[in-house]
Amino acid sequence: MSSPFAAPDSQQHLPPIPWASLSHIFMFGNGKGGVGKSSVSANAAGKAARSGLRTLIIDCNAQGNIARELGYKRAEWNDGGAALLESLRTGTALRPQRNVRENLDVVMGGPALGDEFGIFFHTLLAKEGPHAYLRLLMCLLPIAHEYQIIILDTPPENPSLQRLALSTARWLVIPVKSDGGAEDGLAQIGLEFSYVRFVSQLNPHLELLGVLLFDTGRTYTGIHADVRQQVQKVLGEDAHMFKHLIGHTESVARLVRKRGLLVQELADRRREGDRSVPETVEGLVSDYEGFTEEMFARALELRKDAAA
Question: Could you say which of 114, 157, 255, 264 has the lowest number of CB atoms within 10 Å?
Fold first, then answer.
């Protein structure tokens, strides 16, 4: 006989999760801010969309950094994360802003994912326990089939949102900088990864796809080797480092957010004669193109290995 005072099992209210059909969901995360998550999210998504793949970005950040990357910060339709919060609160399907770029839709982040989200999610967690972290996935499932690539940009300063994203994604990519402070961020995201996949088994299919060096000198091989040692020390010797990296080009990085254009779009402006765009943009385009292709190729390879 069950106790009349026992809390209901929230698992019984969850529909079956079609994990096999969710291998197109990528997450960029780190336990440290300022390591390029939003920049890489936006430019990788832009590359996918330009290649003809229907693509979705979900901005899980209260700062709404994707709005800066894509230039809609002051657009009248930028709701600051209100629609995302409402979907999470009600458990209804996400409602993306369509065609922010051709083939590219966005679920917007922003201030609504700050204190207001915290109050709501604290209540949900008390009611549902750990399965509350599957709420984002449940809201994504009704529209996930509409996209060939889904990318999650995540915040280090909000562990609940980060865990929601980890419980949704198939692949985790960790951008790091070679500034000597990588270990703390790696340790934090590593612990969260372990909790979601192994401890709680909320997402038993989550995999670490690799670690990406961001905003670094392309020829700093000694520094890169040191970062690799840090990564292996924290995440294990088998942790994959992407061959491609994102180089340091400060003038281009500043111009990207000032104009709200992706790196490829800036390069297009230069090719059309805009000499206010530095020539170094071409190197950055090559970095993003190479990394994005490597990321998708590695995910496909691991999928094939798992199916063999």
Answer: 157
